[in-house]
Amino acid sequence: MANSISNTTIVMPGERVTSIEDLAKSKRVILGPGLRRLDDTVVASKAGPLRHKDPNTFWVDNYQRRYVPARGDLVLGLVKAKAGDLYRVDIGSADTASISFLAFEAATKKNRPDLNPGDLIYARVLNASADIEPELVCVNSNGKRGKLGVLSDGFFFKCSLNLGRVLLRENCPALTAFTRQLPYEIAVGVNGRIWLKARSMRETMALSNSILSLEQTNYSQIDRICGDLGEVLQG
Fold it and tell me: Exosome complex exonuclease Rrp40 N-terminal domain: which residues (predicted)?
């Protein structure tokens, strides 16, 4: 059993994570990919390091190829079709996700979002389980969009699921370092998708290549990657 939480805790499929069970007795706990709740127990469904994000979010880092939706995940999705009051959205999972036209800021029956097949949206997973298709929303608990919603212009590309989670960590050193090189906007999904927009297509492509180079490196090489990016931008 995994009795304590640390950066080196490795869990295996079927293993109970008693440290999370104990915490869940007194606090609200959010389980991400690789963890499942079975009655009063928490069980790992994948092998890998047990990760934790404040205040009480846990998941298992696993180099899987296909994204498995979990409640609360930030994802980038491609609108595939409209079906009644819903839009079908591809988020890279086994099942197509859905989002209601009312799941956008200020949306009403008379003021519906104008979404078309091929549009890219940044959304949060509202519901996800093995029995139902994933449901998305583009607003927070206060009904505001924040950074969510339709993404226009910019450049869309894919990365590994692991890199997506790394980039989404609070105060990610890599993204902070890139900000010192040039201004940009970015939306990262845990489903291994990234939307990026800099001042020009040249800057956008240079930055996207620098981000993808993080797949094969670690934080100790960020300065070198930033130096390479600076040379490209000045060339």
Answer: 29-66
